[in-house]
């Protein structure tokens, strides 16, 4: 994934300069993290990837929390390691973050909590959401509101969610000091003004820094191949790829939808290594799709840019937004 210039992330409406400072200022840990990146493949796509097997860690997954993460659009960020973060203090963090957001809202800042709502902040562990026992536990932060005019029995409404995780982060963990917790991927769902404000609290509390991520066309092609390769008994959605054609005065998009069974059959014909996926296989898969399109429409897609992929498993856009599908019971 490619790093996006942080100032472009800053919401356009009403975020004060001191909140912007968080997104443009570098953490003292940045220099050490830079040395970590030089020693690892951080942010790079390998020429081949192992196909992950079912992990015994998945036995601890909370189905309700996992279901909550599905069918939502998540915006991706990278996160530097957090200093002095402790899983035993989650209740304390909930109280502190709530007080911080309430104080900023009273100052008239751009906080999208609503005028007639009370709210609470909930920190909770996402059990089983890691690749190995060494990975730090993932955790979820939710901002939940309840209207003052509604009854006591009415359901709370989740208005913002942040999800912190680390999966197979061995190469990064080897270089992180004991006082730091490495959860390099952060996913947010909710108003950007809330993300900016809550991010400010994390920066002040744990000396960390968020950076907006984009997804390159190169990595989108990997996602299209990997998700197509998933063995599902039933398919409910077409495999769709979106290419952008730069032109004046406005860009032109080309949407290419493929029957999911046909896409899977094509992948099976090019996939030769049962335990891994290689760059050669991904390139051949995309080239075959482009050749088929050219044969029928005389349009050379190699002259365009892949900006979005969507499958029965998930969808992803080059602007760093992803959505994981919720499959029916018969499809698992």
Give a brief description.
This protein has 332 residues and is an alpha+beta fold. The protein is built from nine helices and 16 strands.
Helix/strand/pairing category = alpha+beta
The tally of domains stands at: 2
Q: What is the helix content?
A: 25-40%
Number of strands: 16
**What percent of residues are in strands?**
25-35%
C-alpha geometry: globular
The Cα radius of gyration reads 21 Å
Mean pLDDT: 80
- Could you name the ranges where pLDDT drops below 50 across 5 or more consecutive residues? 1-43
Tally of alpha and pi helices: 9
Give me the strand/helix succession. EHHEHEEHEEEHEEHEHEEHEHEEE
State the end-to-end distance.
29 Å
| Largest sheet data | 12 strands, antiparallel
Key traits:
2 domains, 26% strand, chromosome, twelve-stranded antiparallel β-sheet, two-stranded antiparallel sheet, CENP-L, 16 strands, nucleus, alpha+beta, Centromere protein L, 332 residues, single chain, centromere
Mind explaining what this structure looks like?
By secondary structure, this protein is an alpha+beta fold. It has helices at residues 17-24, 30-39, 63-69, 90-106, 170-173, 192-206, 217-228, 260-270, 279-297, and strands at residues 2-3, 48-50, 73-79, 82-83, 117-126, 138-147, 157-165, 180-181, 185-190, 210-214, 239-245, 252-258, 276-278, 305-310, 314-317, 321-324. It folds into two domains: 2-213, no CATH class; 217-331, no CATH class. Helices cover 31% and strands 26% of the residues. The strands form three sheets. Strands 1, 3, 5, 6, 7, 9, 10, 11, 12, 14, 15 and 16 form a twelve-stranded antiparallel sheet that branches. Helix 7 crosses helix 9 (279-297). The longest helix has 19 residues, at 279-297. The chain is globular, with a radius of gyration of 21 Å. The two termini are 29 Å apart. The relative contact order is 0.17. Mean pLDDT is 80; it is low at 1-43.
